[in-house]
Amino acid sequence: MRFGTLDIDDRATVVVISDDGQQYREASELLPGFTGDMTDFILRQPAPPRDAGTGTWKPINGHQLLAPIPTPRRNIFCIGKNYHDHVKELSQTGLASAPAAPLPSAPIVFTKAPSSVVGDGAAVQSFPEVTSQLDYEAELAVVIGKPGRAIRKEDAFNHVWGYTIVNDISARDVQQRHGQWFLGKSMDTFCPMGPWIVSAAGVDAGKLGVRCWINGELRQDGNTRDLIFDIPTIIATLSSGMTLQPGDVIATGTPAGVGFGFNPPKFLKPGDVMRISIDGIGTLTNRVS
């Protein structure tokens, strides 16, 4: 099943979305009296409902689709250099944070500020006064449902509520200037997310195609089977000394084909359209402004 957040009468409303992505039903039909946000819905439903029940579907047309979790309660967790081919391309760029080296021996973790999140169709600001090296990163993102600390790998998928798409927008020059990743990845609008969350039961996260087109040109074409650290390893690592909470979002890394990996680099510019598609999830599209 698909769960999203729509702007209905200027209110961010949690909805169930039809299989064709064209219709919705409000979550309050599944949970009578429910008026909360997506995190509240996950808290109330630690395992996603398996069917939408009976009711009247309404057309999405005319309502803005927001990020499924428009205002995360914590930073978005991200895993850096987590595809074999991406590590190889970064080692050839001279990026200070990605010198030529063996594959990471443990997951590289950083975060993005909650204020960076925007939804499908939203504009991504270019910040020309701050960066001249704006880049994209297509990523499968995990949404946590059941809280836990010291989660064992074999139990990890029991804590996954669903999956969505994240575009980890990055200012490469800011990354290099400051010697860390947070500032270059946390500017406003630098975390497009969506278009919705697909419940975990309907997704085999170990073999999903991850693709990104820039202005119609296929730039990234990877598969989650090529992750260096799989989802159970990521969850076990993050939860080793910290409790993962319902509604936490974990971006699992990006495959090769980022703009900085080309020679010469292909950085984003105003007017560029980024389209990310992940098998079984959907398509996330955003334009640079």
Alpha-beta content class: mainly beta
State the CATH superfamily name of the largest domain.
Fumarylacetoacetase-like, C-terminal domain
- Write down the domain tally: 2
- Total number of beta strands: 19
Largest sheet: 12 strands, mixed
The level-1 CATH class of the largest domain: Alpha Beta
Q: Please compute the radius of gyration using only Cα atoms.
A: 18 Å
SSE string, helix = H, strand = E? Answer: EEEHEEEHEEEEEEEHHEEEHEEE
Q: Find the CATH topology of the largest domain.
A: Fumarylacetoacetate hydrolase, domain 2
Low-confidence stretches: none
Cα-to-Cα separation, first versus last residue: 32 Å
Shape: globular
- In DSSP terms (H or I, runs of 4 or more residues), the helix count works out at 5
User: pLDDT average, as an integer?
Assistant: 94
Share of helix, binned: 10-25%
* Gross CATH architecture of the largest domain: Alpha-Beta Complex
- Taken as a percent bin, the fraction of beta residues is 25-35%
